[in-house]
Amino acid sequence: MLPDRRFVFMCFLSMISVLGMSGSLAGAASPSSMSEQTIVPPKALRLSVNDALALFINQNLDVLIAKYGIEYSKGQQITAGLFPNPVATIGTLSSFTQGRTSSSSGALSGQIQQLFELAGKRGYRIESAGYGIQSAEASFGDAVRQLGFTVKDTYYRIQLAQRRLILAEENRDRFARILDINTIRFKKGYIAEVDLIRIRLQMVDFQSQVIQSLQEGESARGDLRLLLRLSPITLLELTTELDFRRIDPDIGKLRMVALDLRPDIKARRFAYSQRESDLKLAKAYRIPDVTIGAGYAVQGPQGPDNPQQWSLNLGLPLPIFNRNQGGIVQAEVAVQTAEADLNKTVNLVENEVEVAYRNLLQSRRLVEAYVGGVLEDARSTFTIVERAYERGGATILDLLDAARTSRMIQQNYIEALFNYQHQLFQLESAVGQEIAS
Q1: Which of 155, 190, 213, 303 is within CB 3.0–4.6 Å of 164 for a Cys-Cys bond?
Q2: Residues 205-257 pLDDT 10s
Q3: Domain ranges of the chain
């Protein structure tokens, strides 16, 4: 029996309405699905320690401010080389005697005067400004030196936190398995409840170390992003590992290199030379400068017989009272101050190199002691005690003691490794250049 046509038509309309509703629902859901598809997680920025240093030099604001100091000094050099501007004067002179008026007997005069500096004043100013530029450039290098140390130290603080995190997660997961096994053993009556509580507390302690390592890592990443002028949402993926690289530097060469290359010593030397140039300039001011002027005057129709006049004059201050005595004294004191500052910086650099060198040797000995077998002994001891505990040959106190000892030795090794790297960077900063292995 064939279906009724009206019934078929109604079913067709129902199908269209259902399809329309589903389409509208799909259309309503499409914006959210599209938005979910367009949300792309930010890519991680892969950085080696050298990449971080290069990015730091290009983007750090403190480095940019120090670089502006060089341009400022160049502006001072331009000013030092300029000649004094000539002075132009225009005046009128009128006579009201014997019935004369200003229109008939007045005079119009003009004059140009030029100051000529004597005793090499301009040359001393240019010399002083040149030393100022060199001092600013050295100060810029010193800012890069100090902040570069901070960048490298912060970079490895992130790696330190990462190594701590790996160790804490490893110990937490290991004790999680021990806790699961001993929970079953407790339910069967093989161990006391106090032993299970001790294991649970130890696992909580490892979990707290995980959280602490995560927080330290995030704090160090924030510091590095700030130094590199990166967005707070930038994900950092560091590629240079915290590894041991034995360095055996020559302290004699390091001392000489530091005195020759440290930018802060260079800056003090240039500042001392600049003060000496300023002293020579102050002594040159004892010689007065000469002002030479030339003028021309035009008189009215009822003036004297010479209606046009030329004038030439010479101005020379008489150095009777002021011979720049105070400026010379101030310049001499500035030279003495710059010399004392230079000697202070040299003494500081020598002590920094010596202290950093000795600290590096001590840190290296400690790392080599761990690498020599102590680290592996701590790991194997924990494994041996864990297996003995599973067989009933060791107590829970023995297991916890072995776990704490293993964790402490491994964590101390990571700390010693970071401290060695820190002291190496400290020595490089004290010397003023990278130290090759």
Answers
A1: 213
A2: 889 999 999 999 999 999 999 999 999 999 999 999 988 888 899 999 999 99
A3: 45-82+119-286+323-431, 90-116+288-322
Evaluated on CA atoms 385, 390, 393, 396, the torsion sign reads positive
Beta bridge partners of 88: 112
Q: Read off the pTM.
A: 0.77
- d(C-alpha 163, C-alpha 184), whole Å: 32
**Residue 104 token pair:** 């008939």
Strands 308-315 and 87-93: unpaired
**Mean per-residue pLDDT for 314-330?**
92
Sign of the C-alpha dihedral, residues 266, 271, 272, 276?
Answer: positive
Would you say the C-alpha torsion 220, 221, 224, 229 has a positive or negative sign? Answer: negative
On whether the CB atoms of residues 227 and 149 are closer than 8 A, the answer is no
Domain 45-82+119-286+323-431 superfamily per CATH: Outer membrane efflux proteins (OEP) (1.20.1600.10)
